[in-house]
Amino acid sequence: MKAHEIDYCIYGEEMQYVEIELDPQEIVVAESGSFMMMDAGIKMETIFGDGSQQQSGVLGKLLSAGKRMLTGESLFMTAYQNQNYGKSKVCFAAPYPGKIVAIDLTQYQGKFICQKDAFLCAAKGVSVGIEFQRKLGTGLFGGEGFIMQKIEGDGMAFVHAGGTLARKELRAGEVLKVDTGCIVGFSNTVEYDIEFVGGIKNSIFGGEGLFFATLRGPGIVYVQSLPFSRLASRIIASAPRAGGRGRDEGSLLGGLGNMLDGDNRF
Question: Is 240 within a domain?
Answer without folding.
Answer: no
